[in-house]
TrEMBL record:
It comes from the Bacteria. Gene3D superfamilies: alpha/beta hydrolase (3.40.50.1820). This is Alpha/beta hydrolase. InterPro entries: AB_hydrolase_1, AB_hydrolase_fold, Carboxylesterase_BioH, Pept_S33_TAP-like_C. Residues 70-195 form the AB hydrolase-1 domain. It holds the Pfam family Abhydrolase_4. Keywords: Hydrolase. Residues 227-293 form the Peptidase S33 tripeptidyl aminopeptidase-like C-terminal domain. The keyword Cytoplasm does not apply. The keyword Hydrolase applies. GO terms for molecular function: hydrolase activity. Coiled coil: none annotated.
């Protein structure tokens, strides 16, 4: 065979070996780094039922008027709570903030590489984690796929949710194919430069593994997200960036209309991962909502009580 063939084959082998080494290096990346600590973030593990779950947290800044209810940040597709750090740092001026890695992602490992929890399974794990941390009620903020987990969670565990923020909820029913989601994510990545969480995402994809990443993507596009919205009793703020190609503004507006207590907020020029790419604008948009007392406390209490009496199994 010609020399060029052997040279090409050797180059391919070297590239594969190098890629495998880089992949393993990414998997070994520590959960917290110097940037995390400068932001005031700490990390801990807790046993939540059968899951050993890692979470980041930041206590309200000393001297601030800390709100009584903590804020829990729920990450999106395949990634971990790592990309929630910029938002957590800002919200910690007024709140105790917690950001768990859902089982199978980040540092919350599952026993086998092919183990994948369903969306309801992830919501149940979140509930177990709250109990393990001693958190009875919280306000929740989700991004992208995290909104799907929170929609399931809030519909089945209404007593645990005081307020809900759904930022860039997925899936837009006009993009139910994986290739459509992939293209929209690519466009979003280009729009978010130079503040894209892609570098952080590479680490999280390596830790989750390609099998779990693909299986979770399939769950995202098949999830009956809209069917859960009518069962969410908590006041809910839907937030979307005007330049978000993954969760376009008209789709976010439709989500807000389907919620019993939904409100829409649009951030001019914002993209899909506002928590990382535009954390100050995002925090500015949601902080008043998270701090606000209910406009009608009695009506809200009645709505929560009604939701709490609904059989959980019928809301799955």
């Amino acid at each position: 065979m010609p020399t060029a063939f052997y040279v090409g084959a050797l180059a391919c082998v070297i590239a594969l070996v190098w890629s495998g080494a880089q992949w393993r290096k990414l998997k070994r990346t520590p959960a917290l780094n110097d940037s995390s600590r400068r932001r005031g973030l700490e990390g801990a593990n807790v046993q939540a039922g059968p899951y050993r779950m890692f979470f980041r947290f930041a206590r309200a800044t000393a001297g601030s008027t800390a709100q009584s209810v903590p804020v829990v940040l729920v990450h999106g597709l395949v990634v971990s709570s790592h990309y929630m750090e910029p938002l957590a740092q800002i919200l910690a001026r007024d709140f105790d903030v917690f950001a768990p890695d859902l089982p199978g992602f980040g540092e919350s490992r599952l026993a086998r590489a092919r183990d994948v929890l369903s969306i309801s399974g992830l919501a149940d794990a979140l509930h177990l984690w709250l109990g393990a941390c001693g958190i009875e009620r919280a306000a929740f903020v989700g991004n992208s796929f995290g909104c799907q987990v929170l929609a399931d969670f809030a519909s089945r565990y209404p007593q645990a949710v005081t307020r809900l923020v759904l930022q860039a909820p997925t899936p837009d029913p006009r993009a139910r194919a994986l290739y459509q989601q992939a293209w929209r994510a690519f466009v979003n990545g280009r729009r978010e430069q130079p503040h894209s969480p892609i570098a952080v995402g590479r680490i999280d994809y390596a830790k989750a593994g390609l099998w779990r990443a693909f299986a979770t993507m399939r769950m995202l596009v098949r999830d009956p997200f809209s069917e859960r919205l009518a069962h969410i009793a908590a006041p809910t703020l839907v937030v979307v960036g005007t330049r978000d190609p993954v969760s376009p503004p008209d789709w976010a507006a439709q989500v807000a209309r389907q919620l019993p207590h939904g409100t829409l907020s649009m951030i001019e020029g914002g993209t899909h991962t506002l928590n990382y790419a535009s954390p100050h604008a995002f925090a500015f948009a949601i902080a008043p909502f998270l701090k606000a007392a209910p406009a009608n406390a009695q009506a809200e209490a009645q709505a929560e009580a009604k939701a709490a009496t609904q059989p959980q199994e019928n809301q799955r």
